[in-house]
Amino acid sequence: MSFDYFYGQQSDLFTFYRVPKVLFTNERFWNISADAKMLYGILLDRMSLSAKNGWIDKNGRVYIIFTIDEAKMALNCAEQKAIKLLSELEKKAGLIERKRQGLGKPNLIYVKNFISAVDSQLLNCENHNSGTMEITTQELPKSQCNNTDRNNTEFNDTDSIFPSGNGGMMDENDRYQEYFDYFSDQLSMDLLKKDYPYDSEMLDNILELIVETVCTKRPLIRIGAEERPAEIVRSRFMKLNAEHIRYVMDCFKENTTKIRNIRQYMLTTIYNAPTTIDTYYDALVRHDMSHGYLEGGFKKLKMKREEGE
Length: 309
Fold this sequence. Notes:
The protein has twelve helices and four strands. With 309 residues, the protein is mainly alpha-helical. The chain has a domain at 15-113: Arc Repressor Mutant, subunit A (Orthogonal Bundle), CATH 1.10.10.10. Strands 1-2 form a two-stranded antiparallel sheet. Strands 3-4 form a two-stranded antiparallel ribbon. Helix 3 crosses helix 4 and helix 8 (200-215) crosses helix 9 (230-237).
């Protein structure tokens, strides 16, 4: 079977599982199999659905139900391997926790926060100037550089992601800066500003809104007409990427109605982006195809590429 090439932004039209890069870059997880890491990414994906459906225990922790049969189907593997991979994630990696319900009911699975699992090494960070590691409560060392010449900021502080109520070691300014650096890299803000040269201020406002929301200490955050638990909002915001921000920009530009509360509109659009982006672009593609725009555009792009070669 022969597959065609991708043209333009066709690759953005699909849904993907996201496996955290830290599982491959941090030595703490080097002894975990690639299949187990893939399963963890699938379980993270299920977490979004559970949070949306309100599967939260009395302690505010999101849980999922993911049976052995579902693991078999997701990975196209035998039952014995599915059992082994779940056990590996729980006992060897400590990335999930299973609780029995009894009476023939499936286990509840708590997917652990992979960032809080990384200790004060900040993901194998090192001081590149001296060759020795120096970590203090007031200074965060730079992490290993990735192939985009930007610093990895997949930080480790437990309180940074889901505050425990005991207060963090860093003050509020450090905490804010930590998240600001993280999202600047995670959302590829430099690249977005190149793609939207006239909307740099708007992108800055979106970034600040995301960081302020994640850093809030309020127990509830207003999204649309509802008050939602802050931990659920934080969890969803931590999964945002550049394509979600492009979607938010598109929604804002295409909106023709008067927006009374810009901040609330942007916050709601950002929160809903992970669950509505696919439907939005699917509808857009169907509309363009029905008018012959998409096919013609891709053909023109292909012809230009061939002419350039």
